[in-house]
Design brief:
Elements: H1 2-22, H2 28-56, H3 64-82, H4 85-106, H5 115-137, E1 153-156, E2 161-164, H6 165-187, H7 189-199, H8 201-206, H9 211-236, H10 243-258, H11 263-283, H12 288-302
Antiparallel strand pairs: 1-2
Helix pairs in contact: 1-2, 1-11, 2-6, 2-9, 2-10, 2-11, 3-4, 3-5, 3-9, 3-10, 4-9, 6-7, 7-9, 10-11, 10-12, 11-12
Length: about 300
Amino acid sequence: MLAALLVAVVFLVGLGAGWWQLTGQDKRFIATVLNGLTLGALYFLVASGFTLVFGLMRNVNLAHGSLYLAGAYIGWTAADATGSWFFGVAIGFLAMALAGLALQLLVFRRMEGQDLRQTLVTIGLSIVLADLMLWQWGGQTYQFIPPDWIDGTVRLPMVGMGYSEYRLILFLAAVVIGVGLWLFLNKTKVGTMIRAGVDDRDMLAASGVNVQLVFCVVFAVGAGLAGFAGVVGGTALSIAPGEDTRYLLASLIVVIVGGMGSVTGAAVGAVLIGLAEQLGLVYSPTYGVVYTFLIMVGVLVWRPQGLLGRGG
């Protein structure tokens, strides 16, 4: 409830300010707000998988950004070979879901509770994967071509300006996925088992539940979301070396701001960071990157567990 209220306030403030700017024949502000919301939607798609693995399961996976970029590259290769953007989306998701499953079985299962080892191993993996991707796909920039029916411009009612149809669909997709994840974790039996396993996996195992299987499912879904975000993000923006580090850092900030293990918190954090980044880029580009870190520092000082994180 608090999250929905906060998002509504942010949106209404932005919309109101946009109307104020429109009176001066300047539509740049409202376009920037929309860019911030859609960028926040992309950040949420990446961070939602990260919050499942890092925030909920307490597994430190600093190779999550590499899963994003690898999913983008693999999805682009599949889409380029078949001419189907939707096939690229599916392959990006499935390939990274399998990669996440392998990570859980081969790495994290053997290092439960060893945060430092998990951190060092996944940093090493991210470096190796970055070099392998650079070797395979080179240093050039790639971009997906979405289907024509979602690659147009929509004229927004009342504001009298056009905006990318694909970016609006990206925002709606993030909303649907966010609601689906929340319902999955809070309203299903499997979601209950996941939360119980995080709090006391020994007790859950004693009740006859295959804890490792449950955690494998979570890891696969989290990594698959990273691959899915790679394809849809590569369509909205582009794919290039270095994007793995960018989106890993964004995911960390979103999880810290929103709260560990909270899907709703990740949504709120992603919107705040997306808006701060875009508004800063347009109106104070020299210091724009500082604003996201100021938000993170402010949250850590005022509410260390994150805006919607559990206290403890």
